[in-house]
């Protein structure tokens, strides 16, 4: 079934058609392109025009280009636009305009992708759901998600991200959500914003895209909650958190093995459910999802029941057993706030007999001028007392390492690659290990190295 006809794409983008065709999907990557896709020749590290011929050879239904690339014949199926990124944006706007879907848009300093995945699962049993892939949340990811949305979609879940001021509002106006959810505000991107209030104000710009009668969903209990609520002025406001007045209120979050039993209230009515991972921060994100589901008119009880099937993806808090060691893989996101949440989770988990709680940490990036103090300050977090050993990689993590008591200091390495070289010496049998760092720290390569050790990981006791 066609997702777009050539005529529809030409009308949406104002481009010039070459040939008459239709497409069944939209792609920006020839490595994953499927037959029938529209290949969008974006410029990034490489110019996508260099790959148009390959895309067509792989069965692409057509390509969006700003010029006819070399090696592409005069009869090739093309839509020729002035600017490919602008063309993708226009197609995304058209994709949003032609659907009657109820849209949830999610942003926040941490937890966007896992919360988006929760929302997708929560709505899956209630209608046709379309959601962003991976972390497609920027100036090309949001329009790509909208361009891929089938016209008969009933619920859509979008993720909106930013690195610099002014990036959220245009995405929000493109998404036009019926519910806009902010997960939390943390010390991420301080390098660009300077203060937490600046981050909060930028995140609150998501509310500028709300549809009439749309709902702004805000976490409570933060120093910057008033900034978020101010940004939501003029819109229906729903609050979630631990406060007595919250619309969706967390009563308790009890970890039980690989799940968390959540007891909550929705508008004063009891609501109990499980999520498929341990961690109070995940429970709070689930409450935000329930608020959003409720706001768009879907059934929050059905949504809550569905969340028992959710578990975090790799790199974002997923737990796995490798050999004689348990790993919590949270290697794609780090800030003082999210590290504190990870420490809180680790403190509630019991290692196997003879095992320890171990941290493997990479640099937390984009924290601004206080980055060294913010790293060192994590050594004083109360939950750090229950950690037996801390391995670190990166120049910023050196400040945390130096602030630790000598008995807690494991290995410090200049880079994650240097830590990878010592992977077999990082853990021992029975350990439970939290691995965390900003994606740019490449601490995820340590996770990969531990996986490669496989069943032999932790088989020898190392002090």
Automatic annotation (TrEMBL):
<comment type="function">
    <text>Involved in cell wall formation. Catalyzes the final step in the synthesis of UDP-N-acetylmuramoyl-pentapeptide, the precursor of murein.</text>
</comment>
<keyword id="KW-0573">Peptidoglycan synthesis</keyword>
<keyword id="KW-0131">Cell cycle</keyword>
<feature type="domain" description="Mur ligase C-terminal">
    <location>
        <begin position="323"/>
        <end position="438"/>
    </location>
</feature>
<keyword id="KW-0547">Nucleotide-binding</keyword>
<dbReference type="InterPro" id="IPR035911">
    <property type="entry name" value="MurE/MurF_N"/>
</dbReference>
<dbReference type="InterPro" id="IPR005863">
    <property type="entry name" value="UDP-N-AcMur_synth"/>
</dbReference>
<feature type="binding site">
    <location>
        <begin position="108"/>
        <end position="114"/>
    </location>
    <ligand>
        <name>ATP</name>
    </ligand>
</feature>
<dbReference type="InterPro" id="IPR004101">
    <property type="entry name" value="Mur_ligase_C"/>
</dbReference>
<keyword id="KW-0133">Cell shape</keyword>
<keyword id="KW-0132">Cell division</keyword>
<dbReference type="Pfam" id="PF02875">
    <property type="entry name" value="Mur_ligase_C"/>
</dbReference>
<feature type="domain" description="Mur ligase N-terminal catalytic">
    <location>
        <begin position="23"/>
        <end position="71"/>
    </location>
</feature>
<dbReference type="GO" id="GO:0047480">
    <property type="term" value="F:UDP-N-acetylmuramoyl-tripeptide-D-alanyl-D-alanine ligase activity"/>
</dbReference>
<dbReference type="InterPro" id="IPR036615">
    <property type="entry name" value="Mur_ligase_C_dom_sf"/>
</dbReference>
<dbReference type="Pfam" id="PF08245">
    <property type="entry name" value="Mur_ligase_M"/>
</dbReference>
<comment type="pathway">
    <text>Cell wall biogenesis; peptidoglycan biosynthesis.</text>
</comment>
<feature type="domain" description="Mur ligase central">
    <location>
        <begin position="106"/>
        <end position="293"/>
    </location>
</feature>
<dbReference type="InterPro" id="IPR051046">
    <property type="entry name" value="MurCDEF_CellWall_CoF430Synth"/>
</dbReference>
<dbReference type="InterPro" id="IPR000713">
    <property type="entry name" value="Mur_ligase_N"/>
</dbReference>
<dbReference type="Pfam" id="PF01225">
    <property type="entry name" value="Mur_ligase"/>
</dbReference>
<keyword id="KW-0436">Ligase</keyword>
<keyword id="KW-0961">Cell wall biogenesis/degradation</keyword>
<comment type="similarity">
    <text>Belongs to the MurCDEF family. MurF subfamily.</text>
</comment>
<keyword id="KW-0963">Cytoplasm</keyword>
<dbReference type="InterPro" id="IPR036565">
    <property type="entry name" value="Mur-like_cat_sf"/>
</dbReference>
<dbReference type="InterPro" id="IPR013221">
    <property type="entry name" value="Mur_ligase_cen"/>
</dbReference>
<keyword id="KW-0067">ATP-binding</keyword>
<protein>
    <recommendedName>
        <fullName>UDP-N-acetylmuramoyl-tripeptide--D-alanyl-D-alanine ligase</fullName>
        <ecNumber>6.3.2.10</ecNumber>
    </recommendedName>
</protein>
């Amino acid at each position: 079934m066609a997702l777009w006809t050539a005529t529809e794409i030409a009308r949406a983008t104002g481009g010039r058609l070459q040939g008459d065709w239709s497409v069944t999907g939209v792609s920006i990557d020839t490595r994953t392109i499927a037959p029938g896709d529209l290949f969008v020749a974006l410029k990034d590290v490489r110019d996508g025009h260099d790959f148009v011929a390959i895309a067509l050879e792989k069965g692409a239904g057509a390509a969006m280009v700003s010029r006819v690339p070399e090696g592409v014949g005069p009869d090739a199926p093309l839509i020729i636009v002035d600017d490919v990124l602008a063309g993708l944006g226009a197609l995304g706007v058209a994709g949003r305009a032609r659907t009657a879907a109820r849209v949830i848009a999610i942003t926040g300093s941490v937890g966007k992708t896992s919360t988006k995945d929760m929302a997708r699962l929560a709505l899956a049993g209630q209608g046709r759901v379309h959601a962003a892939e991976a972390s497609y949340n920027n100036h090309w990811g949001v329009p790509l998600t909208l361009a891929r949305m089938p016209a008969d979609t009933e619920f859509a879940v979008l993720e909106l991200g930013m690195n610099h001021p002014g990036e959220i509002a245009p995405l929000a106006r493109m998404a036009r959500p019926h519910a806009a959810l902010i997960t939390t505000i943390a010390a991420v991107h301080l390098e660009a914003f300077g203060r937490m209030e600046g981050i909060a104000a930028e995140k609150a710009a998501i509310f500028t895209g709300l549809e009439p009668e749309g709902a702004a969903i805000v976490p409570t209990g933060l120093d910057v909650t008033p900034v978020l609520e101010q940004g939501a002025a003029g819109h229906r406001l729903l609050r979630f958190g631990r406060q007595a007045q919250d619309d969706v209120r967390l009563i308790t979050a009890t970890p039980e093995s690989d799940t968390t039993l959540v007891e909550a209230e929705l508008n004063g009515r009891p609501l109990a459910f499980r999520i498929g991972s341990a961690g109070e921060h995940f429970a709070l994100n689930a409450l935000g999802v329930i608020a959003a589901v409720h706001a768009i008119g879907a059934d929050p009880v059905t949504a809550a029941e569905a969340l028992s099937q959710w578990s975090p993806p790799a790199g974002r808090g997923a737990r796995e057993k490798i050999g004689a060691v348990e790993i919590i893989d949270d290697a794609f996101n780090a800030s003082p706030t999210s590290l504190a949440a990870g420490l809180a989770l680790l403190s509630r988990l019991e290692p196997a007999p003879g095992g320890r709680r171990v941290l493997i940490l990479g640099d937390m990036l984009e924290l601004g001028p206080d980055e060294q103090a913010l790293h060192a300050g994590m050594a004083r977090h109360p939950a750090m007392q229950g950690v037996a050993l801390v391995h670190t990689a990166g120049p910023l993590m050196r400040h945390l390492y130096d602030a630790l008591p000598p008995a807690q200091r494991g290995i410090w390495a200049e880079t994650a690659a240097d830590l990878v070289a010592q992977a077999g010496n990082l853990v021992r049998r029975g350990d439970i290990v939290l691995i965390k760092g900003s994606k740019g720290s490449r601490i995820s390569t340590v996770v990969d190295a531990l996986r490669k050790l496989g069943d032999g990981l932790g088989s020898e006791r190392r002090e």
